[in-house]
Amino acid sequence: MGILSRFPIHHNGLMRRKCQVMGGSSALGSQPVRPCHGLLNQVLTLGAAVGLTLATPAQLLAQDSGPDRPAPVGPALADPVLTGSKGHYRARMLVPVTQARAWAVLTNYEAMAGLMPDIKQAKVLNRQGSQLELAQTYQAPSTFGLPIKVVLAVEERAPRWMRYRLLRGERILSLQGQWSLTRVRGGVLVDHQIALEPDLPAFLRPTYDDLNEANLRQSMVVLRRLMLAR
Fold first, then answer.
1. Are 120 and 30 in the same domain?
2. Helices (H) and strands (E) in the chain, counts
3. Are strands 172-184 and 131-138 parallel, antiparallel or unpaired?
4. Range list of β-strands (E), the chain
C-alpha cells in the first residue's frame, strides 16, 4: 500500500471539494488537479502526526478491489517503526517473505501463546467462516505482572487483513485493532493499528504507557522473527 493512503483518513469529501476549487470544475477541462497535491501531502502528514482512524470493513474491502501489485516502501521500515501515544498506536515493518507466509504466522493464534511477549494462553473458542472468537490471557510488565483474560471477536480477510475487538475482558475498558499485510517491493508490509484503554488508576497511566510501547515494539520484533523462521 502507499503507506498512508491504504489507511483512509476520513477527509476525502473535504479534499475533493478543495480540489475542485483549486483545480477548476470538469467544465473547464479534464486536466489533472495537480494544485491539490501539496495540500494532500500536508493533510496526510498531519493525519500521521495525530493518529489515524481505524478503517471500516467496507473501506478495507474497497481497498481489496484494486489491482494487487507490489507497492514501494521506504528502507526505514526494514526495522519495526512505532508511532502514536496514550493507547493509540501504529506499528509497521517490512518483512522479506510472501504474503501467504506472513498470513499463516499472523493467524496461527494458538501457537502465539508463549512466543509473543505478552500472550501466555490463546484458544479459538469457535469459528464460522472468516469470523471467530479468540480467548487470550495476557501477562507482561505492561499488565504489572497480572494475568488479564479477554475474549476477542476477530474478522479475517485472507491474506490481506484481520480486525479484532474486545467482547469481554478483565481490567480493559476498550480494545480494538487491525492488522494488514500488503505486498511491497522486497516482501510484505506488516501494519498493526491498535486502540487500547486500560482500566487502571490515573497515576499509573504514564508507567503503563511506557511499558505498553516497549511491549508493542518487542511484539513486532518477535513476529518478524517468526515470519522469517523456516
1. no
2. 5, 8
3. unpaired
4. 81-85, 88-95, 119-128, 131-138, 148-157, 161-169, 172-184, 187-198
**CATH value at residue 184:** 3.30.530.20
Residues 47 and 74 in one domain: no
Q: Higher model confidence: residue 6 or residue 122? A: 122
Percentage of residues of the chain with pLDDT beyond 70 = 67
User: Do residues 35 and 75 share a domain?
Assistant: no
CA separation, residue 144 to residues 132, 139, 156, 198, 213 (Å): 29, 8, 31, 12, 14
Could you tell me which residues come within 8 angstroms of residue 174 by beta carbon, excluding any fewer than 6 positions away? 166, 195, 196, 197
Inform me whether the pLDDT recorded for 15 exceeds 50. Answer: no
Quickly tell me which residue has 484481520 as its cell. 162
Furthest C-alpha separation in the chain: 65
pTM for this entry: 0.70
What is the rounded distance in angstroms from the CA atom of residue 167 to the CA atom of residue 14? 34
Give per-residue pLDDT as tens, 36-57: 444 334 434 434 443 444 555 4
Taking only Cα atoms into account, the Rg of the chain, rounded to an integer number of angstroms, comes to: 19
Contact 168, 178 (CB under 8 A): no
Q: How many domains does the chain have?
A: 2
Give the pLDDT confidence score for residue 54 in this predicted structure: 57
* 8-state DSSP, 72: -
In terms of residue numbers, what domain contains 116? Answer: 64-228
